[in-house]
Structure formats: structure tokens, C-alpha cells
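Please review this one.

:::
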Amino acid sequence: MKKIGICGTGLMGASMAQIFAEQGYETKIYGRTEASLERAKKIVHLAEDRGLVYTTVLEDLKDSDIIIESIVEELSAKQALFERLSKIVGPETILATNTSGLSVNAVGERVVGKERFLGMHWFNPSHLIPLIEIIRNHQTGEDCVKKVYALALAIGKKPVICRNDVPGFIANRIQFAVLRECMDIVEKGTASAEDVDKVMKYGLGFRYAAYGPFEVADFGGLDTFYHISEYLNQDLCNASRPQKLIEDLYQEGHYGVKSGRGFYDYSGGRGEKAVEIRNKKFEDMKKMQDNWEE
């Protein structure tokens, strides 16, 4: 695949367009208005002119080998876009959604040729985090999956395949299971949020940066993990609704870095500093992982 179409001019869409353009792909990014394209241009930082094309005409993407959608996270808007795209592009064009939580089957409900439709879930910040989840719908063809997997590898990403269209795919199911237990620990007064974060950063996260949970279990001994599971699983949090700790913050309008307060205080420039430190950590981690795999 040589020709890439991106629908969406926000942070994710613009970042994806930049990554493909930097890798030498013919890349076009579509936005509904000139103002949205100007927003994307402020996000994209290319060392030189790589031929990235900005357009408000959806038909300009018709000769793309793949079109990746990254518009507002609303089901009806995504369905309408893919319905239009199905009528514009040829039958060989792969159509992909970057939804982080919506059902891939539901998003592609109006797609003509569902065998060429799938989820391609990138992670923010997309230029630093290597993971891409590839999610099948009920009819996604094997050839389509292989092509998108190969494309992800070609741009230096680490793709995984989610074989079933389940809520949260792979990463968010794991992330929210961990967050649920973390909030339960804080709500019960077992530890502070700060100390829970330290446990993840300096203990579990330190391990998981190098090995996945199945590998960690193998190194620890499955006999040990089995016996711990016998008594610990029954005591773990199984809340099926948002917990009070996050519900209270949400109701008060505290959404984290973007609002200036969440579990931590990000006011007075702390938010900008936190993002800067986060990106530096991600950059260092990516370099380290790349060195491990050379």
C-alpha cells in the first residue's frame, strides 16, 4: 500500500498523517472545513515538504489504498462517513476506523464490502506509542487483516490482532480492569492514589515494560500464580458500574489534565509540564525497547 487517506483533523488524525508522510507514503488528510485543516497544519511538523495533501473534498481520497477514519467518537457520524466512502472508493480500498471503544461491527454497518473493513486503533500520542490494535468485524477478510498488519509493521508499529469485536478490544479491557482495582484499593483506604501509581511505575509497570503478564507469570512460576489465584481472585473488585472515586470527580467537572484537575492537580502550568514529562518518558522508553529488539 502506497496511498493513504486520513479522515479527521484532530490530534490523532493529524499525527497519523504525519507518520505516514514521514515514511514516504502519498498521504491525503480530509477535513470538513478549511478551519479544521488549518488546525491540522498546526499539529503536523514535518522536517521537509513530504507532499502531504490537505483537502475538504472527500472524493480526493478515492484512489487511496487504505482510508483511516479518526473523526468524532460518535457512532452516527462514523457510520455516515463510511457510507459515503463506500460509494466513492473502489472495492479494493481498505476502510479502517480508529475508534477506541465503539463496536467495529456497528461502525461499519453501512459499509459496502464489509470484508475490507476493520478497526485500526492507534494510541495517543500516536507518534510515540508503538501499539496498534487491528480489530476484525464479523466479515473482515484474512487478506485485509494481513495487509493492515504489514502496513503497521512497515511504519515501525507493533500491531496485534483482536479476533473478536468485544467492548474495549484488548488494551482498554486490561486498562480498565487495572484501574477498577486501583480505585477500589484507594476507596477502601488501603493506599493513596500516589502510592498506587508508584506500585505501577516502579514495580508492575517496570516489569510490564519488558514482559507481558503471561511472560511474567511464566517467570514467577505458574504453580505460585495458581495458588495465589485460589484465594485472591474471590477478593478482587468486580464493580460493574463506575466507582464513586471517579464518579465524584466526573460530576464536579474534573476530567484530568485537560480540565486542570483529576486525581491530581494540574493547574498553574502543571498540566503542560506533566505532558512534557510524559512525552519524554515515552520517548526514552521507545528508544530502550527499540534497543532491546535490535
The beta strands are 3-7, 26-30, 53-55, 66-69, 94-97, 117-122, 131-136, 158-162.
